[in-house]
């Protein structure tokens, strides 16, 4: 017998009618506040959204009735009625998030609070869009078959290292060789799920804004180093973006080394896996992949330590320059080589100090361990935001 939510032959599950479609702008603002902050009391919602006590009840009651929000009564500390904070009901719907890299496709099935229910990872069979879409459809079916009791997925988000200005067509993805690919329509035809396509860095930044650093900080920056160099900025809980935000402009910023006089190279030429491998070879280490070099450094290999420490100092200089312009409370470092920022934290701070006044407070650095599942959760986050806004 087929799994309850498995895609039928020749097509995918039909997404249920959206309960978000008729929400008012203020109701959407309430839901977005709950996604960012988690559980909130009614006075907190009033303060964050700017509405009256009567409006809180009037606007949230229909959302509770539809099963989108839930109240969690708490024990009263004294006399009086116990508080009943609101939160998004996690099991109201499920979402599919997909992250596509040059070699792999990683997918997650999550609930509405982005808790991962199932994961799957597959090597790409090639870069032909049709073959990638076929693989994606098979993976979605597998995720749903593993969790037949989960609510039917409402939508799908896909992120990749490329641009999609309308959220449906991949304008350009250099590493896949794609240009003008109508990917969302192809995925919808194979899975039946309303789909949002977006840039992977934007997706990861949105995920951090709601479920990471944004929970405690209204203003933070995200820097990724590894296969490429990326940058995201969040202010007052919102991702700052523009039509050019997905073009990887940070990669052209010149970053100085520690020489005297200093030599500056574009970030893409000094803070990527390729740059790390090139530096290792120049130091006489022979040919090695970036991950192997970092592991050697972690084991105490002196040559690898020197190469990775230099990488860390240069990363610090880039962070220091970004912090001078955007004044973040915290800088999140992610990507394939984020581990270097953990192993050589002192060297990162040396790099920051080299481009920052001594009297200025150094930004707090938070390092995220590289997990493709987190990038897939970011894709699900893009879909969730579009769902709440009534776009999916």
Structure description:
This protein has 392 residues and is α/β, with parallel strands linked by helices. 39% of the residues lie in helices and 21% in strands. It has 13 helices and 16 strands. The chain has helices at residues 25-37, 42-49, 53-65, 129-146, 183-191, 200-211, 267-270, 273-282, 290-298, 302-326, 339-343, 345-354, 372-388, and strands at 69-71, 86-88, 94-100, 104-111, 116-123, 153-160, 170-173, 178-181, 195-199, 219-225, 229-235, 238-239, 254-256, 264-266, 330-334, 364-367. A five-stranded mixed β-sheet has the order 5-4-3-6-9. The chain has a five-stranded mixed β-sheet with strand order 12-11-10-15-16, sandwiched between helices. Helix 6 packs across helix 13 (372-388) and helix 10 crosses helix 12. The longest helix has 25 residues, at 302-326. The protein is globular. The two termini are 31 Å apart. Mean pLDDT is 90; it is low at 1-10.
List the helices and strands and how they pair.
Layout lengths: L24 H13 L4 H8 L3 H13 L3 E3 L14 E3 L5 E7 L3 E8 L4 E8 L5 H18 L6 E8 L9 E4 L4 E4 L1 H9 L3 E5 H12 L7 E7 L3 E7 L2 E2 L14 E3 L7 E3 H4 L2 H10 L7 H9 L3 H25 L3 E5 L4 H5 L1 H10 L9 E4 L4 H17 L4
Parallel strand pairs: 3-6, 6-9, 10-15, 15-16
Antiparallel strand pairs: 1-2, 3-4, 4-5, 7-8, 10-11, 11-12, 13-14
Helix pairs in contact: 4-5, 6-13, 9-10, 10-12
